[in-house]
Design a protein that fits this description.
Blueprint lengths: L2 H24 L3 H12 L2 H17 L10 H20 L21 H19 L3 H12 L4 H8 L3 H22 L1
Helix pairs in contact: 2-3, 2-4, 2-6, 3-4, 4-7, 5-8, 6-8, 7-8
């Protein structure tokens, strides 16, 4: 048997195993990746582009991933870095406001008035969150919407744990102020 054939076959098995591990580890976090990208870029199409680029980068760097660890923080760090690169290359400085794009409000309540009030409240929160400085917004999204622990947020953002806590406190305070002004 040809040794070159065996090596090629062995390499193919390694690639298949790597692809399966990649899918198993990172694909379950596609929604979290999109959610973070959506909040950082400001719209659906840009977020989809960023997530696609993120997964390509993650696949190329998957050999650096420490297997056995949670994949979500590692992936979200790549999302964040990809977003910042994308924003630098495609946006004017200071342009970070999210477009208003009401999402479906799922409600088991048949009362349309209550559904409209919930939709208005959700839109008000989205707009206030979009008005926060980017470092507060990303920290709040990672903690409140994605449910990451403080320690993982600190690793993902490459900041001390105290900075995460400070950004969360200041972000929550500023969000509350923005929401109070809108009422």
């Amino acid at each position: 048997m040809n040794k070159g054939f065996w090596n090629k076959s062995a390499a193919s098995r390694v690639d298949e195993k790597r692809a399966a591990l990649f899918q198993e580890t990172l694909l379950p976090h596609l929604d979290a990746a999109y959610n973070l990208a959506r909040w950082l870029t400001g719209n659906d199409q840009d977020a989809q582009d960023v997530v696609q680029e993120t997964y390509l980068r993650a696949l190329n760097a998957f050999h650096t991933f420490q297997h056995g660890r949670e994949g979500r923080p590692w992936l979200l760090k790549i999302v964040r870095n990809t977003c910042y690169t994308w924003l630098r290359e495609n946006r004017r400085p200071g342009l970070t406001a999210l477009e208003s794009n009401p999402q479906d409000i799922s409600s088991s309540d048949p009362d349309p008035e209550i559904a409209l009030l919930r939709e208005a409240d959700a839109k008000m929160v989205r707009q206030a969150l979009a008005g926060l400085p980017l470092e507060y917004r990303e920290t709040l999204v990672l903690r409140e919407l994605e449910g990451l622990p403080y320690k993982e947020i600190a690793e993902l953002l490459d900041v001390p744990l105290g900075t995460v806590m400070s950004r969360l406190a200041r972000g929550r305070k500023e969000l509350w102020r923005l929401l109070s002004e809108r009422k």
